[in-house]
Structures are given as C-alpha cells and as structure tokens.
Amino acid sequence: MLVGVAVDIPEPWGSQLTRRRAAAGDPVARYVPAHLTLLGPTEVDGARLDEIEWALAVVAAEHQPFQVHLRGTGTFRPLTEVVFVAVSAGISECERLARDVRSIPALVRELRFPYHPHVTVAHDVPTAALDAVYDDLAAFEARYQVAGFTLFEHGAEGRWQARRDFRLSTP
Questions:
Q1: Is residue 64 scored above 80 in pLDDT?
Q2: What confidence category does residue 31 fall into, taking pLDDT thresholds of 50, 70 and 90?
Q3: Which range in 59-63, 74-78, 156-160 is most confidently predicted, on average pLDDT?
Q4: What end-to-end distance do the CA atoms of the chain give, in Å?
Q5: How far, in whole angstroms, is CA 129 from its chain's centroid?
Q6: Which residues contact 56 (CB under 8 A, 6 or more apart)?
Q7: Contacts of 102 (CB under 8 A, 6+ apart)
Q8: DSSP H helical ranges for 5-90
Q9: How far apart are the C-alpha atoms of 114 and 80, rounded to whole Å?
Q10: What value does the CA radius of gyration of the chain take, rounded to a whole number of Å?
C-alpha cells in the first residue's frame, strides 16, 4: 500500500495552485491537489496502518500550529524538472514536522534529495510550460495557519485520498 503525509493548502490558494499546475499540462494535477509534502509516496504494509495512525497522532500532539508564508517561485532545475511556490516562513516548522513523521519506524525510507518544503506547481512538463508557471506565479503570495496534516493513501484509480486528518496540539 502506498501512503503519503502532507499539509493541504487552504482555499482560495489550494485550488488556484492546482488549476495552474493543470494548465501547465502536468497530468498529476488532476490526482494531487496543491500541498506541502511531509512524507512523499511511501510503500507500507497495510497491516501496520493502525500503528502508523497512532504514531502520527503522537507526532501531531508534539507540534503546535504555525504560520506559513508562501511567496514567489523557485525551481529544482537542472536537477529535476520542477517549478514550485516557495515557503518563505514556516520552513523550520515544516522541517521538524517532516523529520518526526519520517522517524516513525513504519515510515522510515531513504530520501532521494534533502527535504525542502515547497508546493509543486509544475513537474516534468515542457521547458516552455515550466518557464511560464515560474513567471506567472512569481508574485504569488499566501499566508495561513497550519493546524494539522493528513495521511493520504494512493487509490487504485491513481488519485490520492485522505485517510485521516491529524490536528496539531494547541498551546
């Protein structure tokens, strides 16, 4: 079974970024709404889901809500063909949360690249489309409170489906 853990991007920004990703020709946009990844797609034993959910609840209880400021665009080119909306505030909170999620024994996996919080808005599309998204969203800005994260599972039809939401602890 394939799972992932992410922070949703609230409205009106989430659907705006998802639509822009789709307009770039990114086929994943129809299956993956805009989000901040904490744990990318990870193969797990379905029999361990209760254990995973329990451990994620513990992680959520150890973290408080925090502010995120998304601003402007960035890219991972030439390493990978990705354009993203940058996280300009809330970086360390995302890093700590992602580290704790990835430390759950059933979710430990090797990362291909160091963790870098971001919101993907185009991936593996033609260079002209990557450039257009980069330019179009250069002035993008959003500020919001992160109050929790979601465990997703990959459905048979290719769509990521929310399995359970986890609320961060309140001070």
A1: yes
A2: confident
A3: 59-63
A4: 35
A5: 21
A6: 5, 101, 104, 149, 151, 164, 166
A7: 38, 39, 108, 109, 111, 115
A8: 13-23, 49-61
A9: 13
A10: 16
Residue located via tokens 């998204």? 133
At the fourth CATH level, the homologous superfamily of domain 2-167 is: Cyclic phosphodiesterase (3.90.1140.10)
Q: Which amino acid is at 157?
A: E
Rounded distance between C-alpha atoms, residue 35 and residue 18, angstroms? 9
Largest CA-CA distance found in the chain, in angstroms, rounded: 46
Residue matched to tokens 């330019």:
135
The amino acid present at 170, given as its one-letter code, is T
pTM above 0.90, yes or no: yes
Residue boundaries of the structural domains of the chain: 2-167
pLDDT in tens, 122-146: 998 999 999 999 999 999 999 999 9
Please give the order of strands across the beta sheet that includes 118-123: 118-123, 82-89, 66-75, 141-146
Q: What local confidence, expressed as pLDDT, does residue 63 receive? A: 98
Upstream peptide bond of 41 is cis (omega within 30 degrees of 0) = no
Rounded to whole angstroms, the Cα distance separating 66 from 81 reads 30
Question: For residue 66, is pLDDT > 90?
Answer: yes
At residue 62, φ and ψ (nearest 5 deg) are -90, 0
- Amino acid letter, 30: R
> Above 90 in pLDDT, residue 79?
no
